[in-house]
Specification:
Chain lengths: 483, 334
């Protein structure tokens, strides 16, 4: 058995290191390590509760709005604020825009460049794939960046800037739009739709969201326009390389529910394993047995601790290990759609389980569905009606949790306020769920499980390409993880 | 064209400056780099290479075997615990970012601190964070940082601080352009090491709420149209940056988005000593008045302009959409 350390691991957000035990050209065991500590949970203590809106977005420059929404949701509970309908729609638009940009960035800048990996240079498709998807120089990256920048004009208009906007408040948003601006929002969305339909999907969004089985997806991908699109290229490469056999998940999926709309969610909350179950967030606990943290029993985030301890021998990551009822769950677009009962996700999961293929397909699917929802939200805005309603009072005492779905999965902020100041703040980010180290029972985290048995080909050199596909299929964000 | 080599490192930060940089539009990031002849040797979020080939590159840069024109560092530098820097290691190298940054800054022709974290410590330095972070050449307002007050890159410049949380993409790209063209001289940096190309402006310049400011017609709560200085914590009259001239994400800025400028280009903005979105006052007068105006004059002019506020501004200032449109000028009827 040989050991291999991969790091720095590029094209993920943040500082990631992998330690692989390899035997018979397969990964036998993987250890996933976050190599950085940030300290936000400590910085927040002693501050005014509303300052969380300034500080927490800066946990992450790629899902800063998700952090904002989580903090604002907790503050809304503590201050009795309820956004007016426009405020809820605008928050969803801003949050949806970030998630959409994030899904796009992941596909084009982080995931697809793996097909330009020199390990594939003898494949018949290599030249074309490399020309299209090579990092920095590929033609797809340039096209996607332009579309992304133009899409983010929506946040420029509704929230001033991205990332690190302060527009999302417990009572709604700070920027109302007039009739002309509402039309501009619709135009921005229409322009992005044109990009997705022409370049990414080769089909109308409506056609993609109607697919309800793996077989249908396969037939759909054969149409000439789809085959010539970037999703078509991915589906073709995925089939040739057998990506549905890579990166098997553990089979338990969680979602907190995404995009509230008048008391319900666009994507519902729950726990999915064999069937859909109600999610009991009281069963969440963070284990620190393999983290560079002071030893403590698994604690619910309400009572969680963050006491870094750099020289702890049993530890190998700054990430804690969140568990639900003691068990590992996977979060992300696939999890969100399984929990929501999406027929395509259910069929993909039933036939092959969670894997590199199904994770990427459901991210692409979600881009289409999300954009359709955003068009409806922009359409439903009523100019000259309020976007913001102040809360009853500044939070003085109490505790609350804000739960949202970032592009990468479930994000929770647990906040406690005493005497008008933050007394306790704990964050569990999506990548903490997916990239956690082992727990006290020796149970590996979701990625550690998914890496088991990954093939390491002779051609691969130091960085096995299958391992790279698997890691990036989760779209990790290490900055969030180590908050 | 001769290439200009660039290495980008991410230390204790959120990656937001890179994410913002990707929003560059005219021209977009990759085109801009190519046209300037900048060869991106490695960027952790954008490059293909991982693992051993990156470690080899870093080693060649450290020994000087491969020349490095520009070192960009995003994120603050952790010195903890106990000065080891081990709160932030460069993955795969078993070595702290602190040690890498010191070594590579010693080789680079120019060193850029990208964002307020790398420049001054930023949000990472706030509150009870045990990671003990610092900026590259400043720790908050104090010159020094991890590279020391006397640090000069091989090209003879101190660390160039492109502050901001996050940076505006053009601040970075225009600074790079000026370096490539050999036009960046010490006189082009302000007293906090910031390129004057953006720091010689105030965020107040070009703010669409300036008419409200003139008459001290102030918003009382979020989403209202009035000036944000009197009640909602806005620092735009003191904050250095061209945010309202250059605009963000098409047509945005913080004050255009309806919330206060929190002066994120300044050292120690993360610890204002009061709650960010509220204005601290003494006897009803904001304590943070414009820096280059005598206080007494400001107070006198304010009370005068308040008395003269047109009804249109007074009403619109506390509304979330325009209630009163400007009057249409017509020539006197005969």
């Amino acid at each position: 058995m040989s050991q291999r350390i991969i790091g720095p691991f590029s094209r993920v957000e943040g500082n990631l290191e992998l330690r692989l035990q390899i035997e018979d050209n397969r990964v036998r065991e993987a250890r996933v390590s976050s190599q950085m500590y940030r300290g936000f949970e400590r910085m927040l203590v002693g501050r005014k509760p509303q300052d969380a809106l300034v500080i927490t977005p800066r946990i992450c420059g790629i899902c800063s709005v998700s952090q904002s929404v989580a903090a604002a949701s907790a503050l809304a509970i503590l201050s009795g604020a309820t956004p007016p309908p426009n405020g809820e729609l605008a928050t969803n638009l801003i949050h949806g825009c970030e998630n959409l940009a994030d899904l796009l960035t992941h596909f084009y800048l982080f995931f697809m460049p793996d097909f330009a990996n020199p390990a594939y240079r003898d494949e018949p498709w290599y030249g074309e794939a490399a020309g299209r998807f090579r990092a920095l120089e590929g033609e797809a990256a340039a096209e996607a960046l332009r579309a992304r920048a133009e899409l983010l004009h929506l946040i420029g208009l509704l929230a001033g800037k991205w990332p690190h906007s302060l527009a999302i408040q417990p009572g709604g948003t700070t920027r109302s739009v007039d009739a002309g601006e509402r039309l501009r929002l619709l135009s921005i969305l229409r322009r992005f739709r044109a990009f997705l339909e022409k370049v990414t999907f080769g089909a109308p969004l409506e056609a993609l969201v109607e697919l309800d089985s793996a077989g249908q997806l396969q037939r759909w991908s054969q149409s000439p326009a789809v085959a010539a699109s970037d999703m078509g290229r991915f589906l073709d490469l995925s089939e040739r390389l057998g990506l549905s056999a890579l990166g098997k998940g553990g089979g338990r999926f969680m979602s907190y529910g995404a995009y509230p709309q008048a008391g319900a969610h666009l994507f519902s909350s729950g726990l999915f394993s064999d069937a859909l179950k109600v999610l009991d967030t009281e069963a969440i606990a963070e284990d620190v047995s393999h983290s560079w943290m002071r030893p403590a029993p698994p604690l619910h985030p309400r009572n969680g601790e963050t006491q870094p301890l750099a020289d702890r021998a049993s530890a190998y990551s700054w990430c804690k290990a969140p568990r639900l009822d003691g068990q590992v769950v996977e979060v992300g677009a696939l999890a969100r759609q399984l929990v929501d009962g999406n027929p395509l996700a259910l069929d993909l999961n039933a036939t092959e389980g969670a894997n590199v293929h199904s994770r990427v397909v459901m991210r692409l699917w979600e881009m289409a569905r999300l954009l359709l929802a955003m068009e409806d939200w922009a359409d439903a805005l009523v100019p000259n009606e309020p976007f913001f309603r102040a809360g009853l009072s500044a939070p003085q005492e109490g505790e609350a949790v804000g739960m949202v779905e970032a592009a990468r999965g479930s994000l929770g902020h647990w906040m406690r306020v005493r005497n008008g100041l933050i007394d306790h703040y704990q964050i569990i980010a999506p990548t903490s769920w997916n990239f956690s180290p082992r727990d006290a029972n020796g149970q590996p985290g979701a990625l550690e499980q998914a890496l088991r048995d990954a093939p390491v080909r002779a051609l691969d050199g130091e960085n096995p390409v299958a391992v790279q596909h698997i890691v990036r299929s989760f779209d990790p964000c290490m900055a969030c993880t180590v908050h | 064209m001769k290439t200009f080599t660039l290495l980008w490192l991410q230390a204790c930060g959120c990656g937001g400056c890179t994410m913002s940089l990707l929003c560059a539009e005219s021209p977009p990031l990759f085109d801009q780099l190519r046209w300037q002849g900048i060869e991106l040797l490695w960027h952790p979020a954008l490059s293909e290479a991982s693992g051993a080939s990156v470690r080899d590159l870093l080693q060649r840069l450290e020994t000087g075997e491969q020349p490095l024109d520009l070192l960009c560092v995003e994120g603050a530098i952790a010195r903890g615990p106990h000065g080891s820097g081990n709160f932030s290691r460069l993955a795969g190298t078993d070595r702290s970012m602190l040690s890498w940054v010191k070594a590579l800054a010693g080789r680079a022709r120019y060193t850029l601190a990208v964002g307020s974290c790398a420049a001054y410590g930023g949000v990472s330095a706030s509150g009870g964070n045990p990671s003990d972070v610092s900026g590259l050449q400043y720790e908050g307002e104090r010159l020094g940082g991890v590279l020391g007050a006397d640090y000069r890159s091989a090209g003879g410049l101190p660390v160039i601080n492109i502050s901001g949380c996050p940076i505006h993409p053009q601040w970075v790209l225009e600074t790079m352009m000026s370096l490539v063209r050999g036009e960046m001289v010490p006189e082009e940096l302000d007293a906090l090491g910031r390129p004057r190309l953006f720091s010689d402006h105030l965020v107040h310049h070009g703010c669409p709420r300036n008419e409200y400011y003139e008459y001290k017609a102030s918003a009382q709560q979020h989403s209202q149209l009035g000036c944000l200085m009197e009640h909602l914590g806005c620092m735009a009259t003191q904050a250095h940056g061209d945010c309202n001239i250059r605009l963000w994400n098409g047509e945005g800025s913080c004050t255009r988005g309806g919330y206060a400028c929190i002066n994120c280009t300044a050292p120690e903005f993360e610890e204002p000593g009061y709650s960010f979105l509220s204005t601290p006052k003494v006897a009803g007068i904001p304590i943070g008045l414009p820096t280059d105006m005598p206080k007494a004059w400001f107070v006198a002019l304010s009370s005068l302009s308040k008395a003269a506020t047109p009804a249109r501004l007074r009403e619109n200032a506390v509304a979330d959409h325009k209630l009163v449109a400007p009057k249409i000028y017509t020539k006197k009827k005969r």
